[in-house]
Amino acid sequence: MISRSLPGAMLQRCSRQLLRMRLLILFSVDAGSIVGAWREQRAGPRREAGAAITGFVTRAIYADQVPPTSSAALLALADQRLPSGGHVHSGGVEQAITEGLVSDVPTLERFLERRLRTTGLVTAGLAAAACAAASRPDAVAALRQLDAETDARTPSPAQRGASRAQGRGLIRTARAAWAAPSTTLSWGDLGARPHHPLVLGCAARAGLVAPDGAALVAAYLAVSAPSTAAQRLLALDPVAVAAVTVRLGPAIEQTAAHAAEQCHLYLPDDSDPLLDLLAERHAAREERLFAS
Amino acid sequence: MRPDLPMTDSAAPGANPIPRLHALPHEITGLDPHGHLAGPGRLSGDHGPLRIGIGGPVGSGKTALVAALCRVLGDRLELGVVTNDIYTTEDADFLRRNAVLPNERIVAVQTGCCPHTAIRDDITANLDAVDDLIERLPPLDLVLVESGGDNLTASFSKGLVDVQIFVVDVAGGDKVPRKGGPGVTGADLLVINKTDLAPFVGADLTVMADDAHRVRGTGPVILQSLREDPQATEVVAWVLGHVGTTVRQRAASHN
Prior knowledge:
heterodimer, A: about 290 residues, mainly alpha, disordered N terminus, B: alpha/beta, about 35% helix
């Protein structure tokens, strides 16, 4: 595989100096996983360790062919047409409309910004953390831990259900699109009904999107999905709703950057009691158009 | 796509100049990339249930047809139903109220204001409902997915159902088959319902049947009135023709 993928012409194109620098950087990034892989090879199954080393070699080979973050994969993940069941979830907007909290474009904008700064921040942090964890040697255990962290940050059972329903939908699409999130993690390791931000992070990793990209997608979806629901329910002017999403752009980027920056240190846990209550009231309703 | 460049098969080794990091799921031996697509013939695999989509405009009699199928086939086949009504439970409640099927065999999904999206563009909610039924009630022979009432352009994704029935009704006007649309022209079976109403609404059944055959070519068309034939005899025969030999024998031995 190496001899086929590493053409001589490619090596000749870049100077020795550049290549040495690139490998140095890659090695420093991957030193932990290589050591881990080596330890595993001594102690445990050879195959996994081999996979981790292959992953390292593959990344080194493609370092100058593929950009560090694949923008096309990022766009695909942020596209609401990506089939993951998101269109049947309103993110609390249907109940907010029923309660009279959202009735027009200005109230929708306030609702969306609040949702972004709370739920959006939390899901962005989780997506970034999952993306970073997906390629670690202990990815399986790390993702299991993140699943528990997600539960702990989602007090409303209805919201937990909605998150797992969308995760189940996204993993179906991700499974068809990418063979595995990384060499140390398979889609099956996430279970049948993983939380949506975790699948999003793993899909981002599979598509070579960096953790900050995963956070950006999560923060963007926290705004765009409910705004579409509101547009449908209130028959709002789609041009005005699109303008709201654009106006919230800097806030989305800020939220995502904040979440991604610290995803190695701590996970945001800003809960919003209003959204929790709306989700619970919505789940108890007889007549509703959206699942959440 | 630049017309002056040759098209290459991206799966052929050496044919694709774009560097690829991973093998595509389809190229990995023994790995089924679809999850829900488990066999060569059907979506649910050779031993899984047949999935039939039932779509059509509002009020054309989809739920009445599903109820008839449940009544006739409910004790002969292992049956499950997924409904996509506008307000979630209306159709499901109708089926439960009429005691056509036990509660646990009927699942209602929300479509987020967009019934055709839920059966064609993003079928996730319906796939989950079908998977849940299959998981909960093995072994199922048949799953009916009833769409919410929509317009003539609605049709089911091939990723959700194996075959689909499109239901229109005489009271909707005898020009409906002529108008065509993906449902009327492309469905595996077109049912023209409520033929008993034809004299009252001034609809010409011959015109409807002729138009339907013209736009559908060799595709089957059934004209029926559930009031005159509550057993939906012809549709039941068509459905049994699709569910597979083993299941058909089991259903026949029940009689």
